[in-house]
Amino acid sequence: FHSGEREEKCVIEDVPSDTLVIGNYKVQRWDIHKQDFLESAPGLGMFVTVTTPSAEILMSKLYGPQGTFSFTSYLSGEHVICLQSNSTRFVAFAGSKLRIHLDIRVGEHFLDESVVQAKDKVNEVNFRLEHLIEEIHHISKEQNYEREREEKFRKRSEETNGNILWWAIVQTLILISIGIWQIKSLRDFFISKKLV
Fold first, then answer.
1. How many C-alpha atoms does 160 have within 13 Å on its Cβ side?
2. Which of 56, 73, 88, 95 could lock 15 by a disulfide, CB 3.0 to 4.6 Å apart?
3. CA separation for the pair 95, 98 (Å, rounded)
4. 149 in any annotated domain
5. Is the pLDDT of residue 158 over 70?
């Protein structure tokens, strides 16, 4: 995505609890002379801020023009990941456009390459099996989280439907009572004018 200098851009990630989130980014700046995005100049960095669903700041850190950040969620829900450049007006290209390449992986597990490249095939197979088991646990946790969200949504929908039903009943009773009152008023009017 594109951004101006000092402009904050945010991404919302829906993350289950106890899940590792890894983000890689790279910033490029716009060169007026070459009319293209070039690798960013030294000194340009990014403030990365992560906010939990309860509006607590989980992480706030300054990184360079290219970097990797990671955090582990302790609450399930929508986490807000914001990026903002640290440039100042004294920088030669102040006010220019930035291109930010962002890659966010949720539930990523690190592979230990020294074990993967081990000569002992039994250890390698064992390690890969453990990695697959971790992935299965992560997928199971993700499914449970989605199931909880679906259940909350279903309960909220049922409550809303119940409220709509009661509102329709109240409206019907009000209309019937107004109709009866109008009929009675018209009848009394006609009787008082001796039209009936």
1. 6
2. 73
3. 9
4. no
5. yes
Say which DSSP state 72 is in. Answer: E
Is 196 or 160 the better-scoring residue by pLDDT? 160
Whether 196 shows a pLDDT value over 80: the answer reads no
Angle at 44 between CA 39 and CA 46, to 5 degrees: 105
Q: The CATH number of the domain where 44 resides is what?
A: 2.60.120.680
Bridge-based pairing of strands 66-73 and 57-63 is: unpaired
pLDDT at 25 over 90: no
- Distance CA(93)–CA(83), nearest Å, equals 19
Q: Which amino acid is at 176?
A: I
Residues 81/86/88/91 CA torsion (nearest 10 deg): -130
Q: How far apart are CA 192 and CA 10, in angstroms?
A: 73
Average pLDDT over residues 28-53: 75
d(CA 91, CA 29): 12
6-20, 66-80, 109-123: least confident range: 109-123
